[in-house]
Specification:
This protein is an alpha+beta fold. The chain has 19 helices and 29 strands. Helix 17 crosses helix 18.
C-alpha cells in the first residue's frame, strides 16, 4: 500500500479568529465555528455567526480540532468562518474525503498524542500536514469509506434505539404518575426522608481520600458513576476491605438502593445500584436512598428524582455558579407525590422488561463498536479484503427510468434508497423546519420540501402524494408527522386563529438536538439532503410550489414511459390545476434553474395522480 503526507493529498487551512466584535447570535454574516464545542455527531451545529470572516471553510471540508482537545473531527456542511481552534482539511479531487475522514476519526488518539503544550495541548499545522495516511487506489478508498460508514450507521441506530427506550420510560412515568412538580393526579405527598430507611451522604474529609483507593476491594460510588437512571461503570474505584471494615462500614450501600448525585450537571440525577454490586460505599455528594417499601419502590424513586418536575421542586435549593449543588438535608425536606404501591409495582415491571431489552441492545452496541474498531484497523493496514462495491450497473440504474430528456445533460444514476420509519420521517420533517427556521415555513411549504426531498434524494418516507391545487400533497402523511412532532417533543403544532387551515410550527427541542438526531438517523444521506435543501434556501412557498409541481409532472412522464420534453412538461404543469395559470410566469425561470442545478427527476417513486 502507498502512503502519503496529508499535505500532499489535501489543502490544510489554519483557522483564524476574527475580532470578537464581529460575532453575533442574530444570523448576521456566515456561521462561525470556533472548536469542538460546535461539533455535532457528524456536522457542526451553528450557534454563532460572523459578519467579517477571516478564514473560510467550505462544505465537505473536514474540520479537525487542533487545540484543547486535539484530534476530533466533523464534516462541514456549510460555508463558514473557522476560528483558531480548528483547521479545515480540503481533500483534493483524486482522493476520497470520506476515506480521509474515516482515517482521522479512527486515529484520533494517535493524533491527540502529537499535541504539545503545558496549559493545553495543541498541534502545529506542520505536524498536521506531515500526518502519514495510507492511500490505496480511489475505488478502494470509496469501498473502505462505504464499509466504515455502514458500520457507523449501525452503531448510531443502535444508540438511537437505546435512547428511545429511555424516552419511552420517561413518558410511561408521566403517563402513569403525572408531573411530580404540580402533582396533577392529587396523590398523597410526603417528605423525601420519610420515604426512606436510610438517607445520607457519604464520608467527608479524611475518612475517604484518593490515596485510599485501590485496584480491588469494595467499590466506591462517585458522582461519575451516577447517570440518569443508569449506573455507569466506565471509571470504577475501590477501597481495600480493611479500610472499609474499620472506617467506612456505616456507609455501606446495597443492590436496589438509589444513589443521588447532588452536584454537577445535570444537577440532581439518580440511579439504582445494580444487583451484581453486592456491597459498596457512597462518596460525599452521593446520597444513598434506601426505599421504605411500605411507601415506595426503587424504580419509582429513581425515575422521580430524574423528572423535570422534581428539579422544579428542588430548584430554589440549588446553588453555585461553577458547579451547581444541593445538600442532602434540603432534598430530604422536599415533599413529593406517593402513588399507590400497586401502580408503582406495575411501573417497576415495565422498567424491568424495558431494561432487559436495553441490555440486549447495549451488548449489540458493544459488539458493533468492537467490529468497527477491527474493520478500521484492518482497512488502514491494507488487510481488509474488500469486494468491489462500485456503482450499480446500467441495467440496475435504468430499472425505473423509462426515458431521458433529449437535452444537453444526462441524468445521474440512482442513489441508494433510504427506507424511513414513521419516527424517522418526523425527524426529517423537523430537520427541514429547523433548516429553514428563519423563513418560518408552514404546512403547505413543508409538504413541497418533503416531496422534493423524498423524490430527488430517494428517501422513502412512504408517502401517498396526490395532485392538489398547490402541488403534491399527502394529508395522511403530514398528520402522522405532526403527531410524532408532539409525541417526541420536536415541534408544537398550532392553527392560526384567523386562517384555520394555516399551521404554525414552534420548536420544542433545541436546534442542536434536532440536528444531532437527524445526523444519527440519516448518516449516509445527510450530504445529499443538505445539498438539496441548500438549493431551496430563501425560496418562497409559491416558488417551491412551482418546483415541486414541475418535478412531479416531469417524473410522472418518465414513470409513464412518455416523451420528456419542455413543451410536454409545461402542458402537464398547466393541466395540474386551474391555479397553475396564475403562476405560469414563473415556470421558465424555475425550469431553467432546475436544469442548471441538476434538480432533475430520474423516475424514482410513484406516479402522482389526481384524486377523484
Amino acid at each position: 500500500m502507498k502512503f502519503e503526507q496529508l499535505g500532499n493529498i489535501a489543502e490544510v487551512i489554519a483557522g483564524q479568529s476574527p475580532p470578537s466584535s464581529t460575532y453575533n447570535k442574530d444570523g448576521n454574516g456566515i456561521p462561525f465555528f470556533q472548536g469542538k464545542a460546535d461539533y455535532g455527531k457528524i456536522h457542526p451545529v451553528v450557534r454563532t455567526w460572523c459578519s467579517n470572516p477571516t478564514k473560510i471553510s467550505l462544505p465537505n471540508d473536514i474540520l479537525i480540532s487542533v487545540r484543547a482537545p486535539v484530534g476530533p473531527v466533523n464534516i462541514n456542511n456549510t460555508e463558514a468562518c473557522i476560528g483558531r481552534g480548528l483547521s479545515a482539511i480540503r481533500v483534493k479531487e483524486n482522493f476520497c474525503m470520506q476515506y480521509v475522514f474515516s482515517f482521522l476519526k479512527a486515529n484520533e488518539i494517535k493524533i491527540a498524542n502529537l499535541g504539545v503544550g503545558s496549559t493545553f495541548k495543541a498541534i502545529t499545522q506542520k505536524d498536521l500536514r506531515n500526518l502519514i495516511i495510507p492511500t490505496p487506489d480511489y475505488q478502494t478508498q470509496l469501498n473502505i469509506a462505504n464499509i466504515l460508514s455502514k458500520a457507523e450507521s449501525l452503531i448510531a441506530k443502535r444508540k438511537e434505539s437505546i435512547r428511545l427506550l429511555d424516552e419511552y420510560l420517561k413518558s410511561v412515568f408521566l403517563e402513569m404518575f403525572g408531573d411530580p412538580g404540580i402533582n396533577n393526579r392529587k396523590w398523597e405527598t410526603r417528605k423525601v426522608k420519610e420515604l426512606s430507611l436510610r438517607f445520607s451522604d457519604g464520608p467527608f474529609g479524611s475518612n475517604l481520600k484518593t490515596e485510599h483507593y485501590s485496584d480491588k476491594g469494595i467499590q466506591v460510588i462517585r458522582l461519575q458513576n451516577i447517570g440518569i437512571n443508569n449506573f455507569i461503570e466506565d471509571d470504577v474505584k475501590y477501597v481495600d476491605e480493611f479500610h472499609y471494615e474499620n472506617v467506612l462500614f456505616k456507609y455501606s450501600c446495597y443492590p436496589n438502593d438509589v444513589v443521588i448525585a447532588t452536584m454537577g450537571a445535570p444537577n440532581i440525577r439518580a440511579c439504582i445500584i445494580p444487583k451484581h454490586i453486592k456491597i459498596s460505599v457512597n462518596k460525599a455528594d452521593c446520597v444513598v436512598f434506601r426505599p421504605n417499601h411500605k411507601f415506595v419502590n426503587q424504580f419509582y424513586i429513581s425515575y422521580l428524582f430524574n423528572q423535570e418536575g422534581f428539579l422544579h421542586l428542588a430548584s430554589s435549593f440549588i446553588h453555585g455558579q461553577t458547579r451547581a449543588r444541593i445538600s442532602s438535608g434540603q432534598i430530604a425536606k422536599i415533599e413529593v407525590p406517593v402513588p399507590p404501591l400497586k401502580l408503582q409495582t406495575k411501573f417497576a415491571q415495565i422498567v424491568e422488561k424495558t431494561e432487559a431489552l436495553k441490555a440486549h441492545y447495549q451488548q449489540s452496541l458493544q459488539e458493533l463498536e468492537n467490529l468497527y474498531g477491527s474493520l478500521s484497523q484492518k482497512a488502514f493496514k491494507g488487510e481488509l479484503s474488500i469486494k468491489d462495491e462500485s456503482l450499480p450497473s446500467h441495467a440496475e440504474r435504468s430499472r425505473s427510468v423509462a426515458a431521458e430528456p433529449e437535452m444537453g445533460y444526462t441524468l445521474k444514476p440512482n442513489l441508494k434508497e433510504k427506507e424511513c420509519s414513521k419516527p424517522e420521517r418526523a425527524i426529517l420533517a423537523a430537520y427541514i423546519l429547523n433548516f429553514y427556521a428563519k423563513q418560518n415555513i408552514g404546512r403547505v411549504h413543508l409538504m413541497k420540501l418533503l416531496h422534493l426531498t423524498e423524490y430527488h434524494c430517494q428517501i422513502n418516507i412512504h408517502s401517498n402524494f396526490v395532485q392538489k391545487a398547490a402541488g403534491p400533497y399527502d394529508s395522511g402523511l403530514i398528520k402522522d408527522i405532526e403527531q410524532y412532532f408532539i409525541k417526541y417533543k420536536l415541534y408544537s403544532v398550532t392553527q392560526d386563529n384567523t386562517e384555520k387551515r394555516k399551521v404554525h410550527y414552534t420548536p420544542i427541542s433545541p436546534d442542536s438536538a434536532i440536528s444531532e438526531l437527524f445526523c444519527e438517523n440519516f448518516q449516509d444521506e445527510t450530504l445529499r439532503i443538505n445539498q438539496l435543501l441548500e438549493k431551496f434556501r430563501n425560496w418562497s412557498m409559491v416558488d417551491c410550489e412551482v418546483a415541486s409541481t414541475l418535478y412531479a409532472v416531469w417524473n410522472n412522464r418518465i414513470l409513464s414511459h412518455q416523451a420528456v420534453d419542455y413543451s410536454a412538461i409545461k402542458q402537464d404543469f398547466l393541466k395540474w390545476s386551474p391555479r397553475k395559470k396564475s403562476i405560469i410566469n414563473k415556470f421558465d425561470s424555475v425550469y431553467n434553474w432546475m436544469c442548471e442545478n441538476k434538480v432533475i427527476p430520474v423516475g424514482y417513486g410513484g406516479i402522482i395522480l389526481k384524486v377523484a
